[in-house]
Amino acid sequence: MGHPPLTDSAFDAAFWLLDRALDDNEYLNPRKLHRLLYLAQAYYAVANAGHSLMPATFVADPDGPLEPTLFRAFAYSRPRIDLQPIPDRGKQLLDSIWRRFGAHSTDHLTKALKRHAPYADAYAQAPRTVIEVAALVAFYGRAERPEQGIGALTSQGAPHIEQVLRPRVMRSQSGRPVSVHQWRPRTLKDQ
Q1: The pTM is what?
Q2: Is 50 exceeded by the pLDDT of residue 148?
C-alpha cells in the first residue's frame, strides 16, 4: 500500500520551479526543468522513506530523464492549470533543489544524470522505460556523508541529502535563529 504524494500534481512543482527561476531573472528551459524535477523527486523520496513528492512518472528518454505528461503539456507554451499550494516541506525541498542544482547548465545536469544508475539501468532495458522511485532512493540515498567529500553532482555520484536540503531557520525560545533539519535516523551502514 503506497503513501500519497505530497503535491496534488507534478504541475504544482513545475510551476513553483518556473516561478522561482523568474524571481531570479532566469529562464528555465524545459529540459532543465525536467532534470530539476527528477532530482526533486529523488531527494524527496530519500528524505521521506521512499514517498513521492509528486504523482509523476519519469522515463529514461534518449535526451535524459523526463516526465512525459509535463513534456506534452508544455510543448507549445505554459499551460493554464489550476494550481494547488505546496506544503512548506515541499517548498523547502524545491528551494533546496533550485539553490543546489539550478546554477548547473542543462548539459551538465543531463550528462551527469544520464550516467547515474537509475537512468542508465532503465535506459539499458529500453528507451522510455519508467525510472522507479525505489531506484532513485537506492542511488541518491547512498551518497557519502558531507564530511567525506564536497558532494558535487558528477557522472559518478550525487551529493548527500544533507548537502542538498537547506536547513529551515526557526527561532529558539529566546528569539535567536537556529537551523533545523528533518530528523533522519542513520542506517547501520552510516555508523
Answers
A1: 0.84
A2: no
